[in-house]
Amino acid sequence: MFVSFFPRPKLFFASSILWTALAMAFWYGFASTVFQAPDKPVGLATFWSAPAMWFDLYFAVSVAVFAAAWMLLAPHPWATWSILGSALILFTSYFQVQVSVAINSWYGPFYDLVQAALSKSAPVTVEQFYSELSTFAGIALVAVVVGVMTRFFVSHYIFRWRTAMNDFYVANWPRLRTIEGASQRIQEDTMRFASTMEGLGVNLISAVLTLLAFLPVLVRLSSNITELPLLGSIPYPLVFAAVIWSILGTGVLALIGVRLPGIEFFNQRVEAAYRKELVLGEDDAARANAPTLSVLFSDIRRNYFRLYLNFMYFNIGRIVYLQTDVIFPYLLLAPTIIAGKITLGAMNQILNAFTQVRTSFQYLVNSWSTIVELISIYQRLRSFEAKIHGGPLPSIETQKEPAS
């Protein structure tokens, strides 16, 4: 899955994490303070301000140095896509997060303007109102263009990854053909792995970058909140509440759904057995008879019913948690709102920043169903790689699915 697309995957990913950490430490520890603007602009000017342009240049130079080192020391036929393509996806994801930060900055003056107009506490003209809306329209236009182009590029990136996996497995077909459902694993599992990684990978990068961007915002906005219900006054109350609430929900739902990856794996096994018998029956009249197909399909039915039951438990917990999650930030802000200690603009900034941070921590909660599918596909493709290298098959390959 990885060696076909990335040069020396274990070392590559370890070095990329280390290089990213060093680059970020240098930027946030030194360079960002040098190029920091005295006043942070609001609107489109955010994207071409001096600090933003310096960061773009710094990112490009860091990527160029890293990519050049790998291309020289460990040449790989897919290096251009795997290294530079990954860097471009990382940058566009960062840019989209900056769009969210720009919108959050816009919330403050806009909703304060709305509050002033509704309460008649200050004169507000139609021109001022439309000016704020045009500022949002400009940010939204950038978000649409960058979002569409990013999705287009990611689709091509993922198909190149699938192509690399396909070529790698086809080259080793004589060894792989005896694995159960070998044809399905090469054709369907590589396709599903690529398409699943497209969504999960981009969302994971976005969640991490959103967390890095909005945590400082939430720390700053926490100065407006003096206490939390039940807990009273604590340092950085909003950050504390977001972290604890998200970790609690993720842990509970992961515990409820712990059996789902194995059941999904068995689903693929029984589906492959049924499909194989039907294919053999196309050329051999002695195969795919009614009694055999009935037994194979009963295996499918039993496994799917077990999957549905486990997903019912999981969805009860997930839906209850997410519905409670809607009102959770209002519960936290209740004492501050009732006391009238924040304006409408500050409240919306806090709610949006809190939601962004909380959602980033809830990546597993929102993606667990897809992660279950990806784990199943990963386990099936790992069997291919074990066969190629002459190693033992993963233990799940020899396990029998539960009888009920």
From TrEMBL:
Pfam family, one: SbmA_BacA
Keywords associated with the record: Membrane, Transmembrane, Transmembrane helix, Transport
Key word Transmembrane present: yes
Record's keyword annotation contains Endoplasmic reticulum: no
Membrane spanning residue stretches: 55-74, 81-103, 133-154, 200-219, 239-260, 304-321, 327-344
NCBIfam families cross-referenced by the UniProt entry: PRK11098.1 (NF008306), PRK12369.1 (NF009036)
Record-given protein name: Peptide antibiotic transporter SbmA
Underlying gene: sbmA
